[in-house]
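Lab notebook, bench 4. Still working through the backlog of constructs that have no structural model yet. Next entry is a single chain of 95 residues. Request: give me the structure tokens for it.
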Amino acid sequence: MNLGDTVLQKGWEGLKPDVLMISIGGRVIKNTMGEKEALEAVKLISPKKVIPMHYHCDFLWKRNINPADDEMFKREVEKMGIEYSIMKYGDEIEV
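Model written out:
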């Protein structure tokens, strides 16, 4: 399940996908969730694996327009007993 650019939606409760791709870079530009809202979404959705996205991105001449504490997010997701993966260009996962 890929949530794309979105804000927290209470209707996601109990969806339980195998993999959840979730934006965590919305602290500065509020077109998506920041880490705290994304953690709430993870709790609601209860996936087996979480992949963060849309953070630490460069935009034109500006660097890092959507910062995120991906290490804190990883720790908190793993505390929930959920597998976590930070993907880099060319990475693959099997589901």
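Notes after review: The first strand starts at residue 19 and ends at 23. The mean pLDDT is 88. Flag for follow-up if needed.
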